[in-house]
Amino acid sequence: MASEWICGYAVRKLVIGSALARLCACYGGSILAQTARGNIIWAVVKKPHTVDLHAIALVPMERVVFWKYRFYSERDRLKWLTCPEGFLGQTHKSPQRNSLWRAQVREYHQKRRMRVHLGDRLRIIMPNVPEVIVTKLNPLSGKYGGREYRIPRRLINLEGAGS
C-alpha cells in the first residue's frame, strides 16, 4: 500500500483492535497471532474447525480521521508478501491453501535475509542486465557494462545469487 500510518500510536492501536475484533466477530474465532506490517495486519485466526491466515488491508479515508478496512483470506489472491514466515506454519495444511503465494512469501523473506558483500556477483531478473557486481550496499547497487544500477532485492535471482 502506498499510504502509511499518519496517526499516532494510540489511534493506530485502536484501529488495529477494531479491525481484529470485527474479524473475530465475522468468523466466530479467536486470534492466535497478529502483527502489523505497514498498512496490512496479518492474523492467524482459530475458527471452530480450522486455523486460517487472514490479511486486513487498512486504507485511510479521504478527508476524515477514520480508516476503512477489507478482510482477505489466504484463499484470496493475496498480493502482499510481508506475512511473517512463522504464521505460515501455524495454519492447517490443506490443498486449498495458496501454495504459490506461500512460496513467494518464503522467497521474499529469503531475499531479505540474504547477505550481500561488496564485489559479489549477483544474477538479477532484468532483460538487458543479467548480472551485476555489487559496488554499494546501502542502497544496494552494482555495475554491469560500465553502468551503475540500483538493485531492489525483489529482482535478485536466488538461483545465481552469491559470489
Summary of the model, kept short:
This protein is an alpha+beta fold and 163 residues long.
Description:
This protein is 23% helix and 31% strand. With 163 residues, the protein is α+β, with helices and mostly antiparallel strands. The longest helix has 19 residues, at 9-27. The mean pLDDT is 81.
Unreliable parts: none
Spell out the helices and strands N to C.
HEEEEHHEEEE
Shape: elongated
Radius of gyration: 19 Å
Tally of contiguous helical segments: 3
pLDDT averaged over residues: 81
Percentage of β-strand residues: 25-35%
Q: How many domains is the backbone divided into?
A: 2
Oligomer: single chain
